Amino acid sequence: MFCSTCGKHIPDQSTFCMYCGSAVLGSRARRPCPDCGDEQEMARLKNRAAPPQGTLYCYICSGTGKTWSSMTGSCSQCGGRGYYTCPRCSGQGYVSS
């Protein structure tokens, strides 16, 4: 089948287009997570690397992965990755409506 928004070919069982993210008509409604999905879009608008889907930039270390005091040890919230799993969608990147 084809996405009604961008026109690209997508698998028949798709609920979202893997290219543009639009919901596929007739599928069970799932929508991008309002927490981590918004963060992905903001990163794109600011031309910086987005954290992996289903994650948020760490609010403790501001995405650096380092502790505030020394900038050498790993952040306790994200374990040094700079991001952590989104609590709203549990890392899936989408929520049911």
Keywords:
two-stranded antiparallel ribbon, 4 strands, alpha+beta, 97 residues
Describe the structure.
There is one protein chain. By secondary structure, this protein is α+β, with helices and mostly antiparallel strands. The chain has one helix at residues 36-45; strands at residues 30-32, 55-57, 83-85, 94-96. The strands form 2 sheets. The protein has a two-stranded antiparallel ribbon. A two-stranded antiparallel sheet has the order 2-3. It is elongated.
Strand order of the largest sheet: 1-4
Q: What's the Cα radius of gyration?
A: 16 Å
Q: What letter string, H or E per element, gives the SSE order?
A: EHEEE
Shape: elongated
Helix content bin: 10-25%
Tally of alpha and pi helices: 1
Largest sheet: 2 strands, antiparallel
